[in-house]
Amino acid sequence: MSETPSLVRDLGRSVRWALVTGRDADLGPPLGLWRGPAWLGWSFAVGLLGFWVAILWSAAVKAPDDGGLTAAVMIALLVGSVLLCRDRPLTAMRLVWVGTLVGAYAEIAADRPLDQYFYGYLPVVALVIGRARARSDGLALVTVALILGKTVVTAASLSLDAVGGPVLVALITVTIGYTLSRQRRAEQVATDEREKRAVLEERARIARELHDVVGHHLSIIAVRTDSAPHRLAGLDEAAREEFAKLGVVAREALDETRRLLGLLREESREADRAPQPALADIPDLVRQSRDSGLAVELDADRALPEVPAVVGLTAYRTVQESLNNIRRHSPGASASVSIRCASGELRVTVENSKGAAPPKESRGEGSGLSGLRERAALAGGYCRAGARPDGGFRVSLVLPLPGGEEAAE
User: Fold this and answer.
1) Predicted confidence (pLDDT) per residue in 237-262, tens digit
2) Which of 101-110, 149-158, 323-332 has the highest mean pLDDT?
3) CATH number assigned to the domain with residue range 279-408, chosen from the 4 options 3.40.50.720, 3.40.190.10, 3.30.565.10, 1.10.3210.10
4) Could you state, in order of their start, the residue ranges of all structural domains in the chain?
5) Which residue pairs, CB below 8 angstroms and at least 24 apart, start in 259-264?
6) What pTM, to 2 d.p., does this model score?
7) Cα(334)–Cα(355) distance, integer angstroms
């Protein structure tokens, strides 16, 4: 029994949000159902809207004095709701509700059904409910209530068959909106899962690569401590014993690193034998991309500076993933790679122009950018990616260098 009042309260809040407190920013992004060229989509939408406006005007309300004015108001509400549907969806929905009330008045004044005024609103209703996420109940309830109210009010002067059509179509439209909303939520859940899985996989990959970096340095420490008594003359017994203990600790740390790595490495994956790439390997990477057909230019000093192994590896992987994304998502685009060391920071920027051919797959399907941000964060920096105004794409990596200005110089 206690669940019923709670359900009523939730519906009340949802209706209050839809009517009064809600903002356009509360709704999700556009659904993106149209997959064709943008100009074709806009041409189709404008043509359909013009056709519907012509129908609506041809069936102008025959009220005693203000039939033309009422028809003009109805057309303005219809056009306004369609034009605002993308950027101000909640405002567009409220215009639909006002249009429903105006249409009810028009039907009573004309003493005849004017169903065509409402059918033009149906795409707006479905698309806005589809973007409403968890707040779709209030939008659907207000819409259906208004149509039912219009039916009751106009039933006195119109036959039941004449007013029943909009109610049935409204219910079907709301159902379509709910279907789009569930599909959006399912896609969002799947995207979140891919992002989480990508982060975990990238962390495991980073751990495997850092094993080579850390293991190399620990091996050097162990070798130098073991050889120190033979390379340095005049060492007393205490110093020799200290070097021996340091060598034992270094080897134990190396063995522990290898054991931890085994927890992250897939059973079927063999250990990587080649050394991990560094900042100095980026020119070769750019050259290989150029040889594969990608028009890419490198803007960097002839002799790249010495940076810590983790920093160099992060920069290399960022350039590698960015160039791969350009080949996949922007066929025919030109690209540029910039590497700069200044003010104690390493800045790597990869940009590309708009592709000359349609992308083979959408930019949002991959999860490599999440891995790049994870790498940058673990290295103490950050990675940002986004579209450029000209239709291209930019990836910017900033990593701190030890020693501040001195390291940069």
Assistant:
1) 888 888 888 878 877 777 766 666 65
2) 323-332
3) 3.30.565.10
4) 3-192, 205-264, 279-408
5) 260/207, 261/207, 261/208, 261/211, 264/204, 264/207, 264/208
6) 0.53
7) 8
